[in-house]
Amino acid sequence: MSKSDPQSIYENIKREARLRVESRQEKPLIMVGTATCGVAAGAMQVKEDFAREIDDKGLDAEVIEVGCIGHCYAEPLAIIAKPGFPPVCYGNLDDGLVHRLVEDFLAGDDPSYEYAMAALERNDEFPTFEDFPRGVYEEKLILEHCGYADFSKIESYVARDGYSALAKALSEDPKLVLEEVKEANLRGRGGAGFPAGKKWEACLNNGKDEIYVICNGDEGDPGAFMDRSVLESDPHLVLEGMILCAYAVGAKQGYLYIRAEYPRAVEHVRKAIEQARTKGFLGSSILGTNFSFDLEVFQGSGAFICGEATALVNSMEGRTGMPESRPPRLVQQGFRGKPTVLNNVKTFAYVPLIINKGAEWFKSIGTPESPGTAVFSLVGKINNTGLVEVPMGTTLRQLIEEVGDGLPEGSQFKAVQIGGPSGGCLPESALDVPIDFDSLHEAGAIMGSGGLVVMDQEDCMVAVARFFLEFTQNESCGKCTFCRLGTKHMLDILTDITRGEGDLETLEHLKELSEDVRDGSLCNLGRTAPNPVLTTLRYFYDEYKAHVEEGRCPALVCRDLILYYIKPAKCSKLCNVCVGSCPTEAIYTRDDGLKAIDQEKCVKCDNCRKACPTEYDAVLRLSPPVLPGEKERKAK
Amino acid sequence: MQLLKGEKEEILACVKEVLGENSKTHENLIPILQQVQKKLGYLPALAMDKIAEGLKVPAVDIFSLVTFYNQFRLNPPGKHEIKVCMGTACYMTGGDITLESFERRMGINEGETSLDRHYSLDRVACVGCCTLAPVAVIDDEVEGKVTPTRVDGIMLALEEDREDNAIEKSGPKVGAEDE
Amino acid sequence: MSDYITMIIDDREVKARRGEKLLWVALDNDIYIPHLCAIKEEKRPNASCRLCFVEIEGHNQPVTACTREVEEGMVVATRSSRVDRLVKTGFELLLSDHNLKCRECPANKNCSLQVIAKKRGLKLKHHRFNPLKREFKLDDSPAEFAFDRSRCVLCGQCTWADRFEAEVGAIGFTNRGIDRVVTTFNDLPLADSICTECKLCVDACPVGALYYKKDQNA
User: Fold this and answer.
1) Residues in chain A closer than 8 A to C84 (CB atoms)
2) Is B148 close to A583, i.e. CB distance below 8 A?
3) Is the same domain home to A201 and A331?
4) CA distance linking residue A622 with residue A608, whole number of Å
């Protein structure tokens, strides 16, 4: 059986892949980050610029697309790997910088370190990402190769031992895969943290004939893009995890449910599936064994609720994505009425690592109850926005201050929102909470799918709660009374509060209704929708009070409670910038040459305040919305 | 909505083609609707009816699906599709102001198409480009850091395109004023 | 294993067939639990009206009776402060989106909402929640009946009757969230749809949203 066992078949494929990858390494390789975020920042132009400049100079170098490296604040970015030099990452690229890099580094031998962010491999010349505070706290397991590998070629995955976990597992009993995942205590990364091994085992015990494996890529939380990045940047990692799961539970068919808004992810995954089939990692008789399994992509149609397990299955079966009451759970009765394993993208991505390195290794990272790492998309008022991966147990403070490099100058920390519309807003006092499934739950937030938004003094907590409620209300499927009507009334009440209407009783009423929607709704969308409201009421009650009792928005956000005012003492006759910036011609020049705002015409778009030169800073927002003159008049 | 001449034939041909390429199972319903919409730009009642017939399901079930999922449209989109992102990061940096600016400049509300079908305006939940907030998607191109001033710029480009079209159309054609 | 189990509902010993749903066991034994959307024949209960909450010993939260299979030795209480609070809120939420002019309603004195109010001591008026006041067009196109969506509570009794009793498939739920309605394909008036006017849906409606026109019924 020497030539036909999975290990030797795999070794042959790997040898071939290595040869192909190595042949590419003989010439300079430019890797441009073209995940959705990179493309939005202009990565395609950067790629073209590189190709053109290289062509113009007649150089022999290759420009390829890679995924997201997580340093989104510096997009567009690229890694240049030139033989004889460490691979170096450059950010904030434009045509000028590209020109310079091609001329100095590719044509010449000067890596232009003054423009470099970091090196990707240890060397004597330039620090790597690990040498920065962020790198000290970060531990990349599933993001390790995101943005530093050619997602479009399976060889690149295989050459770095990709699919070796599968080859290893196929040489052994499927039970061993299940045991390893169970032993590792891998908890589902979709938010709730249910142990994946237990889920698989339940499915295996229930499945007499057919079992399905589904990857939940319906990442819909506003402000979260981890799953998208993994699917776009390292699709084979997810596929291998799914194939391992299928082997463990004895499934023959699996699906990746990917949301409609992620066309690039769909494209990359479809391509990866085809390549995996060609190499024999998918399809019938995988790696020469009698194990067969295939995968397909199911594209969502734009409904947040389809991230909910039963709604997702309904949607795949051609129905509206309405959740069902549980039990039965999916492991009993899922897709086509058969036992179904449904796990998040990230959950599957950990599986090959666990099989290769063992459960003990996995448990050595993170905390005993929540082993492994947590992946977050860091956004909001934070310097290093992007995708980060830290061991569970890291505190929120470390994540924000060290990994995210703190808040921008002038920003004072006010709250951090975790878990999206199902999560909560935590204040400064909760920053030393370690990040793990259970601690966050106790603090009133949830791990959720990993969106993390940092807020400062300019963010109004009532408006934030209202924003999330508007989102869930909009995405409510409308099936059950509490979610359909309860979230509508909650939204109406919150809208009233942002207008300064209501009193302390309104706040009490809002709290009661929130609790009832939490306890009475059919599915988790409704049950968790009140979290942003309940946590802000708990931690930022004074801000709510200021709205209803004083008609004042302390963060100067709620537009019904502020007005724009140009302070004559600060305004200059010589400047006209604000007049041109106003989209509704509300700003006029007074007889004395200073500017003023016609309150009737003002739409409070903030354009003039942004336009006003910093040396004047004459445009103010006042809350409650009373002009200085009026105040005096009223006083008289 | 009244179909123009030739549109009916186009719709029927399109549905026939898509139904021919897919097995007619209930599970394929959403992929079939996606494919038809991709070709036609929207899902006219006639198409829904024919798909229902082909798959032997009540037409009202197709209508349920199409009105449930955000992705499906009952009306033809504008030539240019503008989507304003309303993810958390975009909201916090003024996504609502961006949306309002577009509404003001276009004279339509979100979810609507301009009468001449030149552009349509929608909001999307999150396109996952949070670090470039606020974001708008103009015909599949993501625009980052959109301010009201930038909205004016985008609109100017779209209006120029309309004028170019008008010049083309007003060429040799005669008597096109029966609207 | 016997086909029957013994359990306790509100301190009463009750015998029931194994696997039956708690709601129907209680109702069959003349123990009232509020409900609107439950359909006995439905395999997977809709569980959407959220009114049939009860306490089951061993559960830390009220659960819906329509979804729970009875078990040997189960101990159930149909009332508790938590159950009453949820039922009250659920009921008031439904009323906030319901045309509350009972005197003008053909289902007056024959309405499930009125039954719930009476049995649970709830008021048939807007209390904590402002009425949503949405505009609906009356569909009186059928010869003998009409459909007033301002009274509809989205229980799904009519769509079940249409689909599984009449086997027509003329009506269904469309839209999402707060805009969810029962309607026909392309929102056509019932008379212009494939509706056969068999009226099974009218008989199924618990609240007077689908009702017989007066002159026909007199």
Assistant:
1) none
2) yes
3) yes
4) 14
Tokens of A591: 């007889």
Which of A302, A327, A362 corresponds to the end of one domain? A362
If asked whether residues A380 and A341 sit together in one domain, one would say no
Q: Best of C174, C175, C180, C192 to disrupt the B interface by mutation (most B CBs within 10 Å)?
A: C174
CB pairs under 8 A between A and B: 143
Measured between CB atoms, does C156 come within 8 Å of chain A?
A: no
Tell if the CB–CB gap between B129 and A40 is shorter than 8 Å: yes
pLDDT confidence band for A1 (50 / 70 / 90): very low
CATH number of C95-217: 3.30.70.20
CB contact B60 to C (< 8 Å): yes
CATH number of the domain at C4-90, out of 3.90.1150.10, 3.40.720.10, 3.40.50.150, 3.10.20.740? 3.10.20.740
Name the minimum distance, in Å, from the CA of B89 to any CA of chain C.
24
* Model ipTM value: 0.96
pLDDT at B166: 59
Residue C61 has which token pair?
A: 């939260």
Return d(Cα C212, Cα C217) in angstroms, integer.
6
Chain A positions in Cβ-Cβ contact with residue B147 (cut-off 8 Å): 607, 610
Residues 6+ apart with CB under 8 A from A546: A552, A553, A554
Give pLDDT, residue B1.
61
Residues of A in Cβ contact (< 8 Å) with C47: 324-325, 480, 522
Cβ pair B77, B54 in contact under 8 A: no
In this structure, which amino acid lies at residue B84?
V
Same domain, A331 and A385: no
How many CB pairs (< 8 A) connect A and C? 88
- Asked if A545 and A520 sit in the same domain, the reply is yes
- Quote the pLDDT of residue B159: 86
Which residues of B are less than 8 Å from A262 in CB distance?
Answer: 128
Digit-coded pLDDT (tens) for A110-119: 999 999 999 9
Q: Give me the amino acid identity at A586.
A: A
Note down the domain range covering A60: 16-132
C53 chain-A contacts, CB cut-off 8 A = 520
Are the CB atoms for A382 and A407 separated by under 8 Å? yes
- The angle formed by the CA atoms of residues A419, A424 and A429, to the nearest 5 degrees, is 120
Distance between CA atoms of residues A355 and C97, nearest Å? 54
| C9-30 per-position pLDDT tens digit | 999 999 999 999 999 999 999 9
Rounded to whole angstroms, the Cα distance separating A77 from A101 reads 12
Is B174 a residue whose pLDDT tops 60?
no
Same-domain pairing of A40 and A119: yes
Domain count, chain A: 5
CA of B138 to nearest chain A CA: how many angstroms apart? 11
How far apart, in whole angstroms, are the C-alpha atoms of residue A135 and residue A139? 7
> B88 vs A222: CB contact, 8 Å cut-off?
yes
**CATH code for the domain of A86:** 3.40.30.10
State whether B59 and C185 contact (CB < 8 Å).
yes
In a shared domain, residues A520 and A432: no
Identify the CA nearest to C155 among candidates C204, C88, C102.
C204
Return the amino acid letter for B61: D
Q: Which residue has the tokens 């569970």?
A: A392
Residue in chain A lying closest to B91 (CA): A467
Using one digit for the tens of pLDDT, what is the confidence trace for A229-252? 999 999 999 999 999 999 999 999
CB contact under 8 A, C170 and B67: no
Backbone angles phi, psi at A500, to 5 degrees: 80, 10
Delimit the CATH 3.30.70.20 region(s) of chain C. 95-217
> Pairing relation of β-strands B136-138 and B141-143?
antiparallel
Give A454 to chain C, closest Cα distance, Å.
Answer: 29
d(CA A156, CA A494): 51
Q: Do residue A236 and residue A304 come from a single domain?
A: yes
